Protein 1
Amino acid sequence: MLKALRLLLLSATLATASFAAAQAQTVDEIIRKGTITIAIDTTTPPYSMLGSAMAPEGFDIDLANMIAKALGVKVEFVTVNSPGRIPALLTNRVDIVVSIFSITAERAQQVWFSNPYAGQCSAIVGPKSRSAKSLKDLEGLKIAVTRGTPEDNITTAYSAAHNNSISVLRFDDYPSTMSAMLSGQVDLLGSGDYGEIYLRKTNSGDGFEMKFPLRCFHFGVGMRRGNIELLRWMNTFIYTLKNDGTLEDLSQKWRKAPLPALPVF
């Protein structure tokens, strides 16, 4: 009986510890820890990429370092791909995500987002020699997309509503998606209104261009649901960066373009 009671108490203790680990992490807890662990994706230039010294750099990296500096802690980066951002939060691998994390209602069922710090438009991209002006023009074509991105969701939804008229090929990261386009494996590419693809050429020497925008999105810092204190701090911090021109400077530095209008919620 005593042994069984001890086992029961041990199980309860472990369960409590596990529950506590998954609970909302406060700003004070991050400061006491001395480190903030941030998920990034270094395959998404100009927001995050590996520089000449093989160290992460880009818009998101600068922002992540600013967050750590403002909290007075060290930053630890954890590299994930696009589908791995939410699992990294839900399994407590990271404290926050700073990785062109588009704010959507579907994702908000699992994680919380800060107010936006940047934005872009998802678009269909392809060789200049191929014409496409709308989703209807994609029917019968092969389209490469990065899994779980807005361009994946949009092209997949259209295809499903039109007798699976578009062949959507999904890849786990942007370099693989771009490689499919460059190698001629697909006809067109679902991408952003930025990126390395616009600097590349097909095997025949044809350049790439944006065919048409799909939808414009805004990026927020992702965190676990329930982190109300961390959310409020992050929104305040982003407000100060927006208000003093820092976000505009980052946009000009990395995107070579003005910061888009940023809503709040």
Protein 2
Amino acid sequence: MVYQKLSSGFLILEESPLRNYYKNLIEPLIWFSLTEKISQQDYEETRPDDSLAFSRIKEEIQKIADEQADKIINEGNNQAKEILNAATAKAQQEKSNILNQATTATENIRIQEVSRKKLAIKMDFLKYRDEIFQEIQIEAKSKIQKYTKTAKYKEFLVKLVENSSLSIGGGKLSLVVRKEDQSMFPKAELSKIAEKVSKQTGNKTEIQISKDELVSLGGLKLVRSDQKLFVDNSFEVRLERNTDIIRTRLLKLLS
């Protein structure tokens, strides 16, 4: 705040909101004291009371100071509230983020645990299924071994030779069977089968026992003389061909 002292003894304010107010109040008296020739007595009578003027100025200055102080305080309080609100909001957001992260982490752990248990159950199931399948295979082979010692096996094998010959289309064929099964196919039996195949295929058919022996639980192999076609109907191969069917049925049973 800047004050200017006049020759009259009065002070006026420069660059102040009160300047115009006090200018209207004091300036007439200043100009009067400078331009009029009056007696000291008249001057004393007309001169305004300095103490009163200064008192009013002081009051106005104090009022403005109080207003400015209140404004600054209010702005400070508002800023403090804004800072507090922002800090509170940030803290709430951080809290929410931490809770969300904790919830997500917990959910991830739960999902991982469930997945681990599911995988363990699946592995146990697959192991159990394979064990059952192996048991089925062992049981099947045991029954086949018993079956090859019955009269029905001979009937089955003769029919299997006929069907295998038809699938090749007849011609000169070599029959490979187990050593113990060769006695089931004397020349008369083979000629009888060949005649049937010839009639059905229209291709002259001859079947003879191969010098090779079939290493198998049973069944046969039939090879055309040019070695370009053959049929493998050994029991192991037939079991292998049925593996997918057996596994599928087993899966349905265990589901």
Protein 3
Amino acid sequence: MKKTKLAIIIPTKNEEYYLKNIADSIIKQTYTNYKVFVADAYSSDKTVQIAESYGFTVVPGGTPSVGRNNGAQEALKWGADLLLFVDADVVLTGSEFLEKAIEEMKHKNLDVAGTLQEPYMLKEYRSIIPSRNLLYKTVVDITNLGLMLFEKSKKPLMQVCMFATAQAYVKVNGFKPLIFGEDSQFSMDAKKMGFKFGIIRKCGKVLLSMRRFSEKGLIKSRNLYFVKEMLLGHMYTETDAGNLSFRYFD
């Protein structure tokens, strides 16, 4: 049986502090029929050098939407059947994460899939420590609850680690040029077009850095506000940039 050709796409900007963690979690996977594309937004640190040291393909990036789309275009040229879009500060849990995720997508006949999350912190360089911060755990628990509650709705949500078949990506025409919420907008658009969406669970939760909350605080990060606005139908495009204090690549 032909094995799925998986393309892993990581948008980056100055991610030398985190990229090695996601890279190490990828190369430890039992599933090996993949290629990694790092879409870099003109990093001034060692992000590109680190990506290249792992043998990853580096392509021009920009905003997360631009980076994901640029990476996807190169992945399609490579012949990818399935695309995994993952943030640079995420860590895949366990060596069978990819194997189990692909298996569950096939079993459920999913075209687009999101994952659940668990918070972590980096106390020292590359030292991954599960976060015991009650606020962070509460925020992530609420996020996971929202992902599951909206899974079967007309407006399913996904973020930070998400799968899409090449066919679904092409039909949806990629990620919209949004400042925020481009990931969930993609899942909503896919659902409208008849593609099957689901939250996969057998692979386990991905580890997600709480750096934006620790740097900005819950209120200033404005995540809950943007999720509410997105569900109400407001899409924040690049033309809104001057009116918004929140930027993904701050």
